[in-house]
Write a structure and sequence with these properties.
This protein is mainly α and about 190 residues long. It starts with 6 loop residues before the first helix and ends in a 14-residue tail after the last helix.
């Protein structure tokens, strides 16, 4: 059984030296020629990409649980399904990158495992607000995780790919925060810290 790391754990692992190489990010961004020109550690890249993939699987599952709960009103449900679709695109990009590196992508946990997860705490979900809070927390973790890998790159194109992933997550977090009528961060440099 694969242990699904937390987004904070992903950041800690990245900060601790298991950094996705330039080639791994290039593959993730669909830049095969750039990836081929970089020296890399494919097994290290695959490990980090699989951590990110496990987190995307978790996000997809969380949105599915919310969608199937019957608690989301129509406009909110449509937004949640749209965000889930973007997470599926992230998942597919990660799988493709892992396979191009010769690795084996991790699969998702079984639905019942996500539902029993202490991190998702599905048993406590009783309202649309509870679902939005869960999604908001997961999206903020994703923002910080993806921003955490950007400093590892000296090539601006590679940093841009990681930034694009973080941008999707930031948009999700912002929409969810506004839907909850929570204040948006007012301090500069609020994300990625």
């Amino acid at each position: 059984m694969i242990k699904v790391p937390t987004r904070r754990g992903f950041l800690t692992q990245v900060a601790g030296g298991a950094v996705l190489s330039a080639a791994g990010i290039a593959l993730l961004g669909g830049r095969e020629a750039l990836a081929a020109s970089n020296d890399s550690n494919p097994s290290g890249d695959v490990a980090i990409l699989n951590i990110a993939l496990a987190l995307e699987h978790e996000g997809i599952a969380a949105y599915q649980i919310g969608a199937e709960s019957g608690l989301l009103q129509k406009p909110v449900l449509d937004i949640a399904v749209g965000f889930q679709s973007q997470h599926k695109a992230h998942r597919d990009a990660l799988i493709a990158a892992i396979e191009r590196l010769g690795g084996k992508p991790v699969g998702p946990l079984k639905e019942k495992e996500y539902k029993k997860s202490k991190k998702l705490n599905v048993a406590s979900i009783k309202s649309q607000t509870d679902i939005l809070r869960l999604a908001q927390r997961l999206e903020l973790g994703a923002v910080n995780a993806y921003l955490g890998v950007i400093p590892a790159f000296t090539d601006h194109d590679l940093a841009k790919v990681a930034g694009r992933l973080a941008a999707d997550e930031t948009m999700h977090y912002t929409v969810l925060t506004q839907a909850l009528m929570d204040p948006l961060p007012t301090a500069a440099l609020s994300y990625g810290a």
